[in-house]
Amino acid sequence: MATVSIKEVARRAGVSIGTVSNVLNHPDAVAVATRRRVLDVIAELGYVRNDSARQLRAGRSRTVAMVALDLGNPFFTDVMRGAEIAAETAGVNVMIFNSGEDVTRERRHLDILNEQRVLGVLITPVNETHDARLDQLVEHGIPVVLVDRGSGSHHRCSVAVDDVLGGQLAADHLRELGHPRVAFVGGPLSIRQVSDRYAGFTAALAGGPQIRLVATTNLTVAAGRAAGQEIADLPAAERPTAVFCANDLLALGLLQEMTSRGVRVPHDVAIVGYDDIEFAAAAAVPLSSIRQPREQLGRAATQLLLEEVNEPDKHQHRHVVFRPELVVRQSSEPVPTKRRK
Amino acid sequence: MATVSIKEVARRAGVSIGTVSNVLNHPDAVAVATRRRVLDVIAELGYVRNDSARQLRAGRSRTVAMVALDLGNPFFTDVMRGAEIAAETAGVNVMIFNSGEDVTRERRHLDILNEQRVLGVLITPVNETHDARLDQLVEHGIPVVLVDRGSGSHHRCSVAVDDVLGGQLAADHLRELGHPRVAFVGGPLSIRQVSDRYAGFTAALAGGPQIRLVATTNLTVAAGRAAGQEIADLPAAERPTAVFCANDLLALGLLQEMTSRGVRVPHDVAIVGYDDIEFAAAAAVPLSSIRQPREQLGRAATQLLLEEVNEPDKHQHRHVVFRPELVVRQSSEPVPTKRRK
DNA sequence: CGCCGGAACTGAAACGTGTCAACCGTGCCC
DNA sequence: GGGCACGGTTGACACGTTTCAGTTCCGGCG
Prior knowledge:
Two copies of one chain form a homodimer. The first copy, chain A, is of the alpha/beta class.
């Protein structure tokens, strides 16, 4: 129970402390016999290196941290997976923190990371705006990479997905299907992702079909149901024939409401969601959606981070933007009958 | 950029190192004027404490770690949330690690936690069997609490949910509805959770309706669809009138397959899932399910852990078992017509 | 006036490593 | 046989804290 230190190992093995240290860090530099003996003692005593002491000596940790905005959201767990893979291949450890959209908690986490002298930080900050604490990290030589927050700042790297393009992909798809009336369901527009998707959507449809904006207060299934109610209640002549949702949750709620009211999907209304979450494909009517390369996002972020860690001088800050991808499923499939004008 | 240490602060403030340390840790012990001066210098220099050095001195960290089996699974993110809340109120930090069902990665994480001299570890191990590495932690004075793994071991605490009772709840529900033929969908039975649910289910129905076991190779939506196919293909006289799924994902797949084949839910077949995941309520037909107190699980685990941390001597290892809860929704509602015999 | 006590502060030791210059011995080459 | 190179090992120092026994200073009391 009393933790055994390198000193004790050295004593029991009849060698100096330095030799034990060498066995662990530079095994080649020590004679095979001594090495064996030391390793035996280590095993016998159950000696475990003290990371605090190592870090103190080294001045730097060997782990990177990811501060996720909301680990309940599959988006971030996928990003995390990508980060873990990239870190693993680089021989670096990842520890995860969850801010849960709570600024206070985020701050506390960042303070701790600063005190821990972490290798680097991957973060999706709660506030899109400049956070002094992030600058503080950078000033202390801890690289920061923003995830899914396209801060145009040149002080750090960032990775993101092109949400404008995502909206555009949905728009192009619906335009090709020849929909006369379309709607965008989503909100609040104060969320950049939402407004970007909306912007891309409307821009790509300019001069085309009539666009209705159905604003929601959040991005939940319940909000989707409410939007569905609003849309279903419209007179048939005004009702959109296709809906693009800012989110798969909205789309699922919408789908559910439509189905329960006898509005057929995609027959009467086509639906396209966003995110391609696991349940999109498993919905009652499999959902078309815009897929984001989430794992890749995490991988790229980690690579940028490690690049900066390893070559702080040569490093040029970059902003990597990934392209989302349209996944067509049944909810927006062209309907075989010539019902559609 | 060059990190500034307490020494530099002391020099600039014209005091000794010890005084600066006191300002930080025992503010009352230092005169108000000096305190002010030191704090000013700290702010001016942007001094940040070196956690490695503190820990080295203290011999112990101030954070607990949670090693989750699969953060992609909402079950664990909810447990995590509970743990974070409990830790927060105790003034302790939580860092999350994800083993992703990978033994190698789990081992690596545990080694690191051991080296970090973490306060304690919350873990759902990949293998149900005794892992030497966990014992190693305990031997080094690091308490371990098992989450959702009811190891009867008396070497550590554990928290879990009574899966047998869960199966029983589903059974009682279906029995009350008077179903003549029921089925259990799930597998592999080598997973303790699955076999427990099955055991509770069959035990509670003993002497009652006929029970069919539809074994699946995993717990995914796809497996649920396959099971749905198998069930729908049965001759009407043999087809179960109610199905209990080991998992909501299975239930969703099953539901989807049934609906697409014109088998009405709950009219022709009632469905009860397990876990009450977010999408259970949002399914085309809202899904009845067995809910587990997931956040509470995390809170309890953390409390047990901290209790052991704070009073290692008085501490008695305990195994807390929570009761799951039946949530009835449309998928198993009694059908008003007297169609059912 | 001398002494005492307490508040405020100091200085050094210790925590467990990694590193690195110095040292030792052995075998080889000339 | 003497010097040299080199593999193997040692010992001391430094990393940045916290802690604690001392030291200093000062006001109050006998």
